[in-house]
Amino acid sequence: DAIYTTLGRAVKLNKSLLLLARIENGQYKSTEVVDVKTMCDAIMDDLQEVYAHKQIHYYVTADEKHPFIISCNFSLAQIMLNNLLKNALQHSPVGGTLHLNICSNMLQIKNSGAAPLDGEKLFQRFYASRETASKDSNGLGLSIAYSIAKAASLDLTYRWENDSHVFSIVKECK
User: Fold this and answer.
1) For residues 39 and 107, what is the distance between their CA atoms, to the nearest angstrom?
2) Rounded (5°) CA angle 151-130-48
3) What distance lies between CA 115 and its chain's CA centroid?
4) Is the distance from CB of 156 to CB of 123 less than 8 angstroms?
5) pLDDT truncated to tens, each residue of the chain (174 aa)?
6) Measured between alpha carbons, how far is 117 from 66 in angstroms, rounded to an integer?
7) What is the dihedral of CA 53, 57, 62, 64, to 10 degrees?
């Protein structure tokens, strides 16, 4: 059983590293218009079932008249948003909160947490906080999200504010 677990982790790690290399080498040329709120809604529909046991209070504030539209490879946009939302749910305490704030040029993902993360290392490959080091994480999810954002001319940032982790995706000024 331990061999299968180790093999599964090695396969996952290999796939993640290949994805990162392809993104960084610009191998995902096709882009399309992606409505970020619509994609987040679909992802959260799936993830909320998986994390229902944590009883996380989920809120969305969105400017319906001015949606956040990005130009990105559709599959990569899904991976980026899925990694960020799954990360927020996974690392929120039981009974915590997850708030999405969406406007025409930004998505903000804010989830309750116990302590700030290392903003200098957070988006580096294989980074794992003390909190995640023992979990089934290869430390590539946020690095992948960051690389996808960069490839789509988006700025992905992190800050700690009022006992919450805040990840923001903002359209870069051109």
Assistant:
1) 12
2) 65
3) 18
4) yes
5) 778 777 777 777 677 777 777 777 777 778 899 999 999 999 999 998 889 999 999 999 999 899 999 999 999 999 999 999 999 998 899 999 999 999 999 999 999 998 988 888 888 877 776 665 546 666 788 999 999 999 999 999 999 999 999 999 999 765
6) 32
7) 70
Q: Residue with structure tokens 């980026």?
A: 80
Tokens encoding 89: 């749910």
> 């080091």: which residue's tokens?
133
